[in-house]
């Protein structure tokens, strides 16, 4: 599995906690989540690789957290300058975040190069990054068995043509409800999903080609809905009242989901496989929200995880 996206440091303030210089970034959260589900095997190389750029200020401690988790950092380059930084504040129910600042730093004009030996992964995930970068990465990995991407409102509003191109190149898009409805210009989710998947809502319309054949819609505290070639699956969020920090929940959701279909031929056409993947994505995200920054992921204990996963299975009847 190859993940392309940001590795950085976050300054976060929520009603429950706050912290500075926290290890974060979309690739970090997705990577830590996916490697938890694809752990190291004896005498075999890491199965999850990150592609990103960090600055000269990226600490050995932060690097160790990623490496000790089992991530392959061969695709991460160190550039002169400062590492990507984001600062945000959550209030109330923490459903929305107020971004205080975003400093792209060494990620500005960064053009990822996928290591040659990674050109045909089981899964290629373009985490939230510029659509132009996503298109470039997808073109570098024509042999990927499953391709997926995430995005957010800024790219929908400013880079719609390029984002549409990227969406037409992937098998799976993992977006939140607001983003899907915004792309389609329709507030009815099921209708908006059909418009995105058919290509009608994308730049150039249906004549330019269909969109992703699978669309996973994140709905925050309302859970998720997966629109797949094999049917539709909906699951509730895991009910936790230990809400500390929602940062990275969507990325960890995506990482767990994709890790649980990696190497499974035809997974997108298998309801049981996708339901299991969504279950693990939901449970993993529930641990993410219980820790500040990415700490809920890199400190996650397997026994505690499997106990919650079993509890959730019973709750939803799986």
Largest sheet: 9 strands, mixed
**Quick one: CATH class?**
Alpha Beta
Tally the beta strands.
13
Which residue ranges are poorly predicted, with pLDDT under 50 across at least 5 consecutive positions? none
Second CATH tier, the architecture = 3-Layer(aba) Sandwich
Your description of this structure?
With 318 residues, this protein is of the alpha/beta class. It has one domain: Ribokinase (UDP-N-acetylmuramoyl-L-alanine:D-glutamate ligase). It has eleven helices and 13 strands. The protein has helices spanning 26-37, 60-69, 131-140, 153-158, 160-169, 177-184, 189-198, 249-259, 271-288, 295-298, 302-316, and strands at residues 2-4, 8-13, 18-24, 48-54, 71-78, 84-90, 97-103, 123-126, 146-150, 172-176, 214-218, 224-228, 231-235. It has a nine-stranded mixed β-sheet with strand order 5-4-1-8-9-10-11-12-13, sandwiched between helices. A four-stranded mixed β-sheet has the order 3-2-6-7. The chain is globular and about 50 Å long. Residues 47-294 form the Carbohydrate kinase PfkB domain. GO terms for molecular function: adenosine kinase activity. Its EC number is 2.7.1.20. This is Carbohydrate kinase (ADK). Keywords: Kinase, Transferase.
């Amino acid at each position: 599995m190859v993940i392309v996206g940001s590795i950085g440091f976050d300054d976060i303030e929520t009603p429950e906690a706050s912290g500075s210089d926290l290890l974060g970034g979309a690739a970090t959260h997705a990577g830590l989540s996916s490697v938890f589900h694809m752990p190291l095997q004896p005498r075999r190389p890491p199965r999850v690789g990150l592609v990103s750029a960090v600055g000269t200020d990226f600490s050995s401690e932060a690097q160790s957290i990623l490496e000790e988790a089992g991530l392959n950092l061969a695709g991460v380059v160190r550039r002169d300058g400062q590492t990507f930084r984001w600062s945000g504040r959550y209030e109330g129910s923490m459903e929305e975040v107020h971004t205080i600042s975003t400093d792209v730093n060494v990620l500005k004009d960064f053009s990822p190069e996928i290591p040659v030996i990674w050109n045909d992964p089981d899964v290629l995930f373009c985490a939230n990054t510029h659509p132009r970068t996503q298109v470039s990465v997808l073109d570098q990995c024509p042999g990927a068995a499953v391709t997926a991407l995430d995005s957010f409102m800024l790219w929908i509003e400013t880079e719609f043509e390029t984002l549409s191109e990227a969406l037409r190149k992937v098998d799976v898009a993992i977006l939140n409800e607001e983003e899907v409805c915004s792309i389609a210009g329709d507030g009815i989710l099921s209708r908006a999903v059909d418009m995105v998947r058919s290509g009608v809502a994308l730049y150039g319309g249906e004549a330019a080609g269909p969109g992703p054949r699978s669309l996973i819609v994140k709905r925050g505290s309302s859970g998720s809905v997966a629109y797949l070639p094999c049917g539709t699956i909906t699951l509730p969020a895991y009910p936790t009242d230990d809400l500390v920090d929602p940062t990275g929940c969507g990325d960890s959701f995506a990482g767990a989901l994709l890790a649980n279909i990696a190497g499974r031929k035809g997974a997108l056409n298998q309801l049981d496989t996708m339901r299991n993947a969504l279950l693990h994505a939901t449970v993993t995200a529930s641990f993410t929200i219980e820790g500040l920054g990415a700490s809920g992921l890199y400190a996650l204990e397997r026994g505690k995880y499997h106990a919650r996963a079993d509890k959730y299975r019973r709750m939803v009847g799986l």
